Amino acid sequence: MTSTARIIPATRRKGFLYWARDTGWRHLIGLVMLVFAAFPLLYVLSASLNPSGTLVGSNDLFRTIDFGNYVRLFQLPQQPFAAWFLNTMIIGSVAALGTVFLGALAAYAFSRMRFTGRRVGLLTLLLVQMFPQLLGVVAIFLLLTGIGEIFPAIGIGTQTGLILVYLGGALGVNTYLMYGFFNTVPVSIDEAAKIDGASHARIFFTIILRLVAPILAVVGLLSFIGSTSEFVIASIVLTDPQTQTLAVGLYQFVSQETSRNWTIFSAGAVLAALPVVALFLYLQKYIIGGLTAGAVK
Amino acid sequence: MSIHPTASSVAAATATPPPAPPAPVRRIRQARSTRGLIMTIALLSILDAIAVFALFMLFLQEEWLLVGIVLAVTVLLNVIYLRPGWLPAKYLAPGLVFLAIFQIFVVVYSGYIAFTNYGDGRNGSKDDAIQTIVLTAQERVPDSPTYRLTVLEQFGEYFFLVTDPTGEVLLGSADQPLEPVGDFGTDSTGKADSVPGFTTLTFNDLLGNQRAITDLAVQLSDDPNDGALRTPDGSSAYLYLSSLEYDEATDTFVDRSGTVYRDGGDGAFVNDSGRELTPGWTINVGFDNFITAFTTENIRGPLISVTIWTFAFAILSVVTTFALGLFLAIVFNKPLMRGKKIYRIIMILPYAFPGFLSGLVWLGLLNQDFGYVNQVIFGGASIPWLTDPWLAKFSVLLVNLWLGFPYMFLICTGALQSIPEELTEAATVDGARPWAVFRLIKFPLLLVSVAPLLISSFAFNFNNFNIIYMLTGGGPRDVTAGVDAGATDILITLVYKVAFGEGTGRDYGLASAFAILIFLIVATVSIISFRQTKALEELN
After folding, report:
1. C-beta atoms of B346 and A175 within 8 A
2. Would you tell me which of B51, B342, B389, B410 could form a disulfide with B74, CB atoms 3.0–4.6 Å apart?
């Protein structure tokens, strides 16, 4: 009896110290990181709701809540924000769909077929990611100028041309990710279907593609995020403000007069980030799985 | 793994007809491949139609090499999809076509451009340059006869239909010198005003396209020295002659005062006092761009410091993000800790936030005069975060840490969790302290699994254009440099600014030379580092 009575308070006191040493400091670090990670984002949100309009006025965080910036954002004559937004979504979606399709075709071949050059092909896919397309930005510019003389519809200044350039990067690390996932689908499924008389195309389109849907979503999202944030190639291909993407338009908008345009830019930034962040958080499980797939066996 | 069955069945399908399967199965298969065949043919016809159009256009422009390539690729694609078998090719071809054009060709083409003087005022053939020089130097001949004119249009191109003073009717356009036409309609005054197949522009059309029409010059004949017709109003044209005359035999231009402009060997016509006629044309300059980059004092200096900073930036970015990410992964790798999910979601927000916006947001935060950091956190100080060469470097790294640590946190967490708990336990039982367990067991294991990702991360940061360009634009600019280079410029932003910068003229040749340099560096680094890791050996 006496011994237990003595132990309980001792455990409690020791318990708090123990907790502080064992877990509490982790929360402390966590809080610091929360501020570091979230502060810039809260700051933009606050600035976007600030009616003062300028950078210096945005330093009063959340003092006033006003949606005027969001209204003004859509009324700028020189900066067609609505068009930029739409362009970005269209270019991003089409490029993502194309990337998924081209990548899945290639990953299917690499995963299910054995042919000469297969190993070299896989190695190339790994190495290609080392050389991003933006290295060839000058050549891309001149190439599209040349193409534009024959096919104005896909030449310089067109969104179609830009999408085609993005599809050039479709076979790369994405395909490699898909290849890994395709390998986890048992070959016996293909064989069963083949015995039932399904052609290779039918097996691919109606069976395999459905089984690998999670990786298709991940690759599609990664490609969507990649092409919506892409600045270099978009900025040289798209010259007319009506055809530009958010990255190009918002950069030019805010780099001209950072301070004066700040709150309207912030509203634009919040709107531009919303779909991407929402998608990312919604699919984060798959994305993180995809990201770590390469690292962890 | 049951790989061999697939391999053999593919081989069987490609080589010889498989041993007869049961009849019903065969019938179903036949039916389905008929539908597939129809799809294939439909898609191929679209492709072929586009290819034939491209071939036609290339043929007209006499681009024989391209005609050959387009023809070969089209034939190859048709063979791949119409021939039974070659199954892998059917699946790989679409992606490979795009890869070949927009990634591989682009790199090769960059290599070619690096050996030319391509750039502002040097972006065409010599013939084009001669024609442009003649056209831009044109002046109206004082006693020019009046040519009565009707402007026609066909497929978006404008044509001049002129009735010359002798009554002869001629037709021509910007690309096509005047030629007599047989079939035309005339108005009441005897002026030709229509040709079958062409649209006659109305007065309103003329007004709407005024600029294009007044800029149009139609050569009188094949020889540009004969002059060209231009119109100030759309209803009458006058003869314009160039003040510069081109002499084909000696390959020189002579102006009215008798000054001679010769081909200076540098892609432009120059006179004895060094004045150039614009535009020039593209020529191969061999290693000149590379020689310029490495020997010209005010380019070599900046190039070297930019290269060093590129390495420093990429390495420090990987090290700082990895260190913070790993630290956090260890901190939060605590099974029973509460609120882990919330920390995790908030901490990955910077990674989910679009990259280009992050740079711009921090641009506002770090603004010297009005930014939050100076005004609020440092109480109104005026710290030049983005305008002092060293502080700008620090700021770029800080922002990149903010952007990149969540990724490292995620992969380190994954890697830590995949290390078997038994290893830690065994070591602890053997008397190892936690730090020793981490340093000697967990860390090496973790490094093995994340090494390939660290290499990719290095390669990514080596060309991390967005963060640099959005935050500092490469600045603060080094005013002594012969190119637009600054303290935080990395190689890829330098390429962009040299090629498309607004401050200085565009120099595609030099920019491509820099790009080739990056290519070589990245190739070397990745070959060495991949040799070190086992990433490539695990492929089966």
Report:
1. no
2. B51
